[in-house]
Structure formats: C-alpha cells, structure tokens
Design goal:
Layout: E1 9-14, H1 17-24, H2 32-45, E2 49-54, H3 62-76, H4 90-111, H5 118-129, H6 139-150, H7 156-161, H8 180-186, H9 191-198, H10 211-220
Parallel strand pairs: 1-2
Helix pairs in contact: 1-2, 4-5, 9-10
Amino acid sequence: MDTLPSPASIAICSDSQAAIKALLLSTVLSTSSVLAARSALINLCTIHKVSVFWTPAHIGIPGNEKADSLANIGSDGPPAEGPRPVPFAECFIRGFIDEVLFENHVKFLRSSSDSASLSIRLSLNLLLSNRYKFCFSNKHQVRTISHLFSGHSYLRYFQHKFGHEAVPSCRLCEEAPETTEHFLSQCPASILQRKATMGHFTFRGNYTLSHQQVLRFATEQRYLDYFEPP
C-alpha cells in the first residue's frame, strides 16, 4: 500500500460475506482481529478511495486464489505464537464457569457464620430446589426476592444502619427489629396474612419457606411500598 500513488482507487474483494459484514457493521460482535482489520481499513480510507466487494470463491480472481492458497498454507503450518485456542465451545465454557460459581455460592452459604438465619436458608432453598425451574415474571418480583434473601432491603433494620430510619423496630408491631425473619415469620401484626398465604400464624425453629410463599406474602404486605426516599 505504501507504493500506491496518493490518492488511489483500491478494490478489496472477499468471498466471505460474514467477514465483510463484520468489517462494515459496528453492531456485529467484534474480535480483536476484526477490530484491527477495521482500524486498518479506516486508516486506508483517509488517504485512498476504497471499495469492498463480495465475490464468489474459486472463479479465477488472482488475488482471491492467492488468499486461499495462503490460508491453506497457514492452516497446515504450526500455530502462531500467542495464546492457544481453547478446544471447547463457548457455551460449554460458560456452563462450566456457571457450575463452579454455583457450587462456590452454595459452599459459602453453608459455611457462613450466620447459616441459621432465615435469609441464608431461603437462599439455599432457592438455589438447590429451584435451579433452572423458576422464572420471575417481572422486575418487582426480582427486587423483592433479592432484597429479602440478601437482607439489603427496605426493612427498617437495614435502613436504620444507614441512617435512613430513626429506629430499627418493626413499623407494624414496634416490638422487635424489622429484619427479614421478623417480617416473614414472627411479626404479630401480620399473623392473619401469614396464616392465609403461608399456612401458619408464626414460624419458629428450623423451617423452610419457598420463594413462591415469600413472594405471595410480601406482595400482600405491599413490601415494595415500604421504600421511603431518604
């Protein structure tokens, strides 16, 4: 290219429609080689008039035949220096990573010093018994479950720690800190709703609630309305 008169008219022919689309469309997911080729093409266009054409393969175009022969030589030769390609499909690698993270998450929850807490038991129950089976129907359900399972919620016990609430006590009964466990299983002001949605007036000791029960109870209690901007 350095020997061409400036400016020059350059025609680039390729028998790969996918390669042309990757170079010309910024919406295509790009690898480092595509980005490098696109950058070189843009730099070339600042000096020369460049046109890119698709052409059928193996019809006698000298440049195309030369490119094919070089590609064959490259594929038969030793691998280039640099990172070795991983001989697995991307979906397999993603699945393997997901499995490892899942197992580590469960191990962490089981070894937690607070493993007897309701939020930890709820998390384990959701992970172990409902994996790949349960889909949230809307973002409000996702928010409710993530809040109550993690403890980072609109409940006063958590908000009080950040100075957003004057007291940590339950806004309904004012008898105990408004934690996830108190909200779901013990608040005396919610016993009728708890009985209707979860089958018991209160829960004590070692018990398990399903995510469906938690969502139904929290929805009836209008949990998301607890939020008050600081």
